Amino acid sequence: MKKTLVLLFLSVLFLGAKAQSDLPNVTLKNLDGETVNITELNNDGKPFVMTFWATWCGPCVKEHNALSEVYEDWQEETGVKIFAVTIDDSRSTPRIKPFVEGKGWEFDVLLDVNKDLARAMNVSNPPHTFLFDGNGKMVYQHTGYFEGAEEELYQEILKLNK
Predict the structure, then answer these.
(1) What is the fold of 22-160?
(2) pLDDT tens digits for range 51-74
């Protein structure tokens, strides 16, 4: 009986530890060509946002423009970091860095040219936005973009900082 309880306790402990992160084990490249393993994404214990977007997606560009306008203030107030994951294919890859720089977006941009991360996170259409707590646990998500969606996201970020 004691062995059963100990095994049950260890199983729950192991499953609890495993459930701490909702980030899949996928490797992408950043705009500088450096390899980034998604499981290693963090923000020093502060929340972070992961957005899925594409250069051809009008609502994605609107969302990122809106986020760009408030990003610096959000960082100062909450410490949040944004990882913008593009699902553009390999033919579009050379245009992504100039596109992002032209928009003045200060996000960390990752390239998901094979859509491995998008599939692992069940992203079917961009824009799709996820909010993670400081442990990599997903706490909020929304799809699509509507004017003011960034304010809804901001309120969710504030809840994590309480």
Answers:
(1) Glutaredoxin (3.40.30)
(2) 999 999 999 999 999 999 999 999
